[in-house]
Amino acid sequence: MKKIFALLLCAIMCFSVMTACTQSNQPQGTDTPDEPESGDVLVIRLASITAANDDLYEYRSGLLFQEKVEEYSNGTMKVEYYPASQLGNSTEMVEGVSVGTINMGMSVGFDIYANLDPICSVVGMPFLFKDYEHMHAFLEGDNDAIKTIKQSMIDNVDIRVMGYCYRPFRSVVTMAKPVYAPSDLAGMTIRSPEAQANMQWLTAMGASPVTISWSELYTSLSNGAAEGAENSITEFYGANFQDIIGYASETNHMAVTCLLTANNTWYESLTDEQRAVLDKASQDLSDYNWAGFQEASEKAWKAFADKGVVCIRHDEVDDAAFRAASADIYKYFVNKGDFTEELYNSILNLKY
Predict the structure, then answer these.
(1) Cβ(275)–Cβ(267) below 8 Å
(2) How far is residue 59's CA from residue 345's CA, in Å, rounded to a whole number?
(3) CA-based nearest residue to 59, from 70, 77, 47
(4) 238 and 207, same structural domain?
(5) Would the pLDDT of 37 be above 80?
(6) Do 119 and 156 fall within a single domain?
(7) Do the Cβ atoms of 135 and 129 come closer than 8 Å?
(8) 136 lies in which domain range?
């Protein structure tokens, strides 16, 4: 028995010596940021409501952000991307970013953020922007209006705007009736997101807005719970609405600027280097969306036409009638105190 014990002790000692020799032969003090220890990796939860469909430029922009964060950080930061409302619907995602249970969110617009910080409503005012260049200059230019809105979101709801997911201006789709003018919407039940700006616009057009979550809208239109909806044509395309609706009208009544956001307390807790990585990757996401959204819009309109949907493009709708019916909607929000008329006019009259 003593011999067996001695042999085991000898084997253990030999193994320890071999291990020590192996470790001493490894280079010392050589950090390898490309292959960080798992405990050194900052994991970021990014939520999105956009469908996980490689055909959608907005979904791909989330993948780009994921890739760039890892690239710029040499692997010390990793994005876990949750598209298709995996972490909740629009309202739940925005609230999650605000309280910090979600680090970052994308694909939800100012209209939903307005439920937390009312000043955001101003960006969704009907016919606020003359064209896409006007919208782009406001969002990414050096102007007091966007600075005021961004700072308000930080101060009031702990949300930092990081970048933008650009989409075409909003259109109206209907099941059985074409829409050329506001009078065509009178009496119709039209889906609205949980956003006051959209509901006020539909009401001004004579429609009856009904709030239905985006994930349930396809079924709701199919079973008659709503007669139509309003959103960006690319979003309708991404959810395959071309398979069920009869008419699509390019009213261009509102901007659909969606955001890439971060919980500000979490963001401020990061190192300077980590924040720089997120800032750079966020700008890449914005640039990617800006470069691709108008082409994606035309692709969506073609897909609708190819499916036999009656597509009423912008030059066919009564733009003047829509603008006239929308003219006073902003005053409702000014009277509520959501934003000032001065802020509204500074965006409306922005030089670009």
Answers:
(1) yes
(2) 34
(3) 47
(4) yes
(5) no
(6) yes
(7) yes
(8) 40-167+256-294
Q: Which residues, including other chains, have CB under 8 Å from residue 228's CB and lie 6 or more apart? A: 172, 173, 174, 175, 177, 179, 185, 188, 189, 190, 191, 221, 245
- Give the containing element (helix H, strand E) for 339: none
pTM given for the model: 0.86
The tally of domains found in the chain comes to: 2
| CB distance 135 to 148 below 8 Å | no
pLDDT in tens, 116-171: 999 999 999 999 999 999 999 999 999 999 999 999 999 999 999 999 999 999 99
Please list the helix, strand and coil fractions of the chain in percent, rounded to the nearest 5, in that order: 55, 15, 30
Residue type, 226: A
C-beta neighbour count of 176 within 10 angstroms: 11
Cβ distance 188 to 177 under 8 Å? yes
Cα–Cα distance measured from residue 232 to residue 258, given in angstroms and rounded to the nearest whole number? 11
Cα 195 to Cα 109: distance, rounded to the nearest angstrom: 10
Q: What burial letters (b/e) apply to 239-249, b meaning 16+ CB within 10 Å?
A: bebbeebebbb
Q: Could you tell me which residues come within 8 angstroms of residue 134 by beta carbon, excluding any fewer than 6 positions away?
A: 350, 352
Q: What is the CATH number of the domain that holds 99?
A: 3.40.190.170
| C-alpha span between 132 and 235 (Å, rounded) | 17
78 and 197 both lie in a single domain: no
Give yes or no for residue 101 having a pLDDT over 50.
yes
CA nearest neighbour of 226 among 192, 179, 197: 192
Residue entry with tokens 């965006």: 347
Select from 302, 297, 318 the least CA-distant residue to 170: 297
Helix H or strand E segment including 337? none
**Nearest CA among 49, 147, 142 for reference residue 102:** 49
Phi and psi, residue 109, nearest 5°:
-90, 175
